[in-house]
């Protein structure tokens, strides 16, 4: 694709140079008076050629734009493919671990070692036991299965992560895997934003029922996004963290808008940063 872009740019440069040369040629024609061709006749020929070159320029610009779109879409598909590969790898690893645990528990049951089974199951929850839930720490929603591991990950990063999801999220007109992807990406971005931040590290996820819509917001009290960057942050490939990044928010926004929803951003000094997904219900 880079070769196509370079080739199209070379074509544009050649066309512009040809137009410039023709115009310069016309400007000096009366003084030179070559070949005995009348000025008016030559002017008509040059106008015809310049118009033709201008149309050719428009065609080349259109092709360049198409190539850029294809390149952007290709990168987005690459990111999605990498996400799917990581998900498959995670599921395979979890399946392997799950089977091992089941076999261990089954063996203990066969040997009538019920006490050992209890101890073993308790040991599997050591990581989760480190999480201190408040009275509303569990929302009993479909998002608990993804938010509990995220809370554990945040704690390991030294970040306070609380969430409260009202009933109604199960009625959102969204495939569950895509809803999980949106929540996962927004929370991961919030955790990443805390890296290197010296102030209070806090993330809150709130799900609110709002009539025909469901509002899902992810807020962090840490660094803000500068106002001049806020309109660029959803553009594909835009990132302040290096090449090969900057597609996550674009993908999230695209997924939400596919279902006629909205993704809004508020980032102000003294407030923090909040991404709000406005999702339509079924």
From TrEMBL:
Pfam families: HATPase_c (PF02518), SPOB_a (PF14689)
PANTHER family, sorted: SENSOR HISTIDINE KINASE
Transmembrane segments: 12-30, 42-61
EC number: 2.7.13.3
Catalytic activity: ATP + protein L-histidine = ADP + protein N-phospho-L-histidine
Keyword Cell membrane recorded: no
InterPro entries for the chain: HATPase_C_sf, HATPase_dom, His_kinase_dom, Sig_transdc_His_kin-like_C, Sig_transdc_His_kin_SpoOB, SPOB_a
Histidine kinase domain segment(s): 177-282
The protein, known as: histidine kinase
GO molecular-function term, one example from the UniProt record: phosphorelay sensor kinase activity
Protein's organism: Orenia metallireducens
SMART domains assigned: HATPase_c
